[in-house]
Amino acid sequence: DIASDKKLDDRWERLLQIRGEITRVLEAARRDKVIGLSLDAAVLLEAGGELGDFLAENLELIKELCIVSSLQMVDRLEKGEGMEIGMAEDVEGMTIGVRPATGAKCERCWVIEDSVGRDDEHPTLCARCCDVVRSLSS
Which of 25, 60, 69, 77 is least surrounded, with the fewest CB atoms within 10 Å of its CB? Predict the structure, then answer.
């Protein structure tokens, strides 16, 4: 139906606008040598109210759209060593922080994550990829 199509269009338009804002700060972080590739990045988002709720509900999808290793909401972003911070230009009320992701690189998906190396059976994979590999071999 037309109403649900409009709602879906609006959601995706908003998601792509948010991705554009995050990409802008990722590019600044790359230029300033904070990160190399987008998968080297951990992105922190500060936003309140309805925007904060929208971001929290769509965090995993936004992470995938931005091709970053981690994405999380924070109450307050503070400039620190090795952190690039930018205010969103077209999404009012959102501040974006970019810093290097911590952990090891998964050899299957290339995400940098703390769970890499925790599985004895698959020591070079992240937890998500370990689950996928197990499901494929069962």
Answer: 60
Sheet with strand 95-100: strands edge to edge: 70-73, 41-46, 95-100, 84-87
Cα–Cα distance measured from residue 37 to residue 23, given in angstroms and rounded to the nearest whole number? 11
- What is the set of domains in the chain, with CATH numbers? 2-101 (3.30.2320.20), 103-138 (no CATH)
Flag whether the pTM goes above 0.85: yes
* Nearest Cα residue to 97 out of 121, 72, 114: 72
Taking the C-alpha atoms of residue 124 and residue 105, their distance in angstroms, rounded to an integer, is 8
Question: Which residue, 138, 59, 66, 69, is CA-closest to 103?
Answer: 69
- Which residue, chain included where needed, has tokens 């009012």? 92
Task: Express each pLDDT in 102-130 by its tens digit.
Answer: 999 999 999 999 999 999 999 999 999 99
